[in-house]
Request: fold
Amino acid sequence: MNYQEFEINLKNKLISGTGPKMLMKILDAPFRYDSLLTPFNLNLKMEQGFLRSQENKYYSFIKELCNYFFLNNQFDSLENKYTFIKKEENSETKELVFTEIKINFDYVYAKNNEIIVIRQKKRDIFSKKEILKIVDKFFNDLENFAQNNSEVKIKGYLWFVDNEYQRNLDILQEKFKFGLKNNYEANFAYSANLFAYLNNEDYWLEVERNLEKFKKNNYDDFLKLPNLDSDKETLEFMTKMSNKLWEKLTSPEEIYMKIRSLIFNLENPQSNFFKAIKLREIANQASDEDELKNKLIEYGQSENNYEK
Reply:
């Protein structure tokens, strides 16, 4: 993926849907944004939540780039959550014991009678106790998965996305040195090393270069919370939101009245709040799609005349 395509995809992910998502979060839990138990006002809490959401979207995009690599190289993406019934014999009673095993990997891909499973961690900053627990769980899940897919070869990877932190490198090298076992093998990898196992380390090195370039350009259009009172995407969401959410938005309860007054300019007839009321009214009164389209056209023309 060249940088231009990379930038367009990332910016679209960061910019789209931010207003509707923020409004929905506020309506679902208004106490998180306006309460005596927080020292911050609504605007600061919205900004805080927005930036956290943007950071999550950014990391989600990075995960998508991993998936993009495999799909672009003709791997089939498989279900990553599994439930097995494991059958074992009790050593003392000789009775069969059935245990439900649940396994969840981050990625599972198949190609040419081989399955690749990946468990992803952001960075290797764990304590010795924590990393041993993570590794043991990974080995246990990998072995159970391999036993239930005995007809194919399994390659398992514990992948740390960030290359800057390798706190437990020595422990990992010791734990992962057993090599091929039955029909599976396990490896750990930092950053681009995962793709080195797949003979394409350059792919992830390019991803990292693109991320560095994106950050250096210091774009600010995805760092600003959209104005919910005028944002077009938010208005469209308000017009089509569920009745349950709409009832919250228009509720006479004190908390929702306060939220409305802080988010919307209720003295401005062009506020998204009043526009949404009118548009929902039009939608409810229209007898069919043609009438709805005509009424929306009429409303749009009157809005344009008002703005002039």
Summary: The two ends are 45 Å apart (CA to CA). Strands lie at 76-77, 81-89, 96-104, 107-111, 114-121, 153-160, 184-190. The longest strand covers residues 81-89.
